[in-house]
């Protein structure tokens, strides 16, 4: 990767950074010499990931954090500043998914999905931006979804949250555009992670088919006929954090295998 893409000396915070897409993003950032903090609610996974990257020569800090709780986010940002002295990059990756129907008598899943995906991104950005403003530089990358581009029956909360992320991205980008901070989003299709496998199993059970059958159904709807890999999403994050993307803000990039190609 050329010098425009190197992140040496920069400090990044990746929420939900212990597993799946978040882990791949953190690994990619470490690979470009960034100092990286990862946070989330799965402490064992965070520590394992941080240990793996540290053994490989990275400078990584793992922090427990529930992004829906302002006090947790405040503590996390404070710890990053105390450890590294600055914060340049925020990747709002922490997410929650699951089926929610308008007929579901329990509102708790709706509330949790919106809180983790949408409110979590808001709180982390709100508390990170002041530190970016101290040196008039920052990169915020929000992980949305192709379900932020179109609707899927039975996923009311997730579609709502991921559409909301795109509106949040555009509005925040305009707020901070003159202050050296860019804000962009990424919309992945199915990515081969534990969260995707859980979604496949949940939907398969509702449809009365095997997980393998529904996986094939899901893949058949993706024009490239495969799931995306987590490192393919991570590579787009690296681009958005690089000097090469310094004129790009308020945008949403689809890593969708062509799934959104027919959508205006």
> What structural category arises from helix and sheet content?
alpha/beta
Share of helix, binned? 40-55%
**Second CATH tier, the architecture of the largest domain:** 3-Layer(aba) Sandwich
Strand order of the largest sheet: 3-2-1-4-5-6-7
Mean pLDDT: 94
Q: What is the 3D shape?
A: globular
Specify the biggest β-sheet: 7 strands, parallel
Termini separation = 33 Å
Strand content: 5-15%
CATH topology of the largest domain: Rossmann fold
Number of domains: 2
Q: Under the CATH scheme, which class of the largest domain?
A: Alpha Beta
How many helix segments?
8
Weakly predicted, low-confidence segments: none
Number of strands: 7
- The CATH homology group name of the largest domain: NAD(P)-binding Rossmann-like Domain
Order of helices and strands: EHEHEHEHEHEHHHE
Radius of gyration: 18 Å
Q: How would you summarize the topology of this molecule?
A:
Layout: E1 11-15, H1 20-31, E2 35-40, H2 43-55, E3 60-64, H3 70-84, E4 89-92, H4 108-133, E5 138-143, H5 156-176, E6 181-188, H6 194-207, H7 211-220, H8 230-241, E7 252-255
Parallel strand pairs: 1-2, 1-4, 2-3, 4-5, 5-6, 6-7
Helix pairs in contact: 1-8, 3-4, 4-5, 6-7
């Amino acid at each position: 990767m050329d010098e425009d893409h190197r992140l040496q000396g920069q400090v990044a915070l990746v929420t939900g950074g212990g597993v799946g897409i978040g882990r791949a993003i953190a690994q990619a950032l470490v690979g470009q010499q960034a100092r990286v903090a990862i946070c989330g609610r799965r402490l064992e996974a965070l520590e394992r990931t941080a240990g793996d990257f540290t053994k490989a020569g990275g400078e990584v800090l793992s922090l427990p954090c529930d992004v829906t709780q302002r006090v947790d986010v405040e503590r996390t940002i404070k710890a990053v500043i105390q450890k590294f002295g600055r914060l340049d990059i925020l990747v709002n990756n922490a997410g929650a998914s699951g089926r929610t129907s308008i007929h579901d008598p329990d509102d708790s899943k709706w509330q949790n999905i919106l809180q983790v995906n949408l409110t979590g991104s808001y709180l982390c950005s709100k508390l990170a931006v002041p530190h970016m403003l101290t040196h008039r530089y920052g990169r915020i990358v929000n992980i949305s979804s192709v379900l932020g581009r179109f609707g899927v029956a039975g996923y009311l909360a997730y579609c709502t949250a991921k559409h909301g992320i795109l509106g949040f991205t555009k509005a925040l980008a305009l707020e901070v555009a003159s202050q050296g901070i860019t804000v962009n989003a990424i919309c992945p299709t199915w990515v081969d992670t534990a969260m995707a496998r859980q979604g496949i199993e949940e939907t398969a059970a509702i449809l009365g088919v095997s997980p393998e059958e529904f996986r094939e159904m899901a893949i058949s709807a993706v024009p490239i006929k495969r799931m995306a890999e987590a490192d393919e999403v991570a590579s787009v994050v690296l681009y958005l954090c690089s000097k090469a993307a310094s004129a790009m803000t308020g945008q949403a990039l689809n890593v969708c295998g062509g799934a959104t190609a027919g959508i205006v």
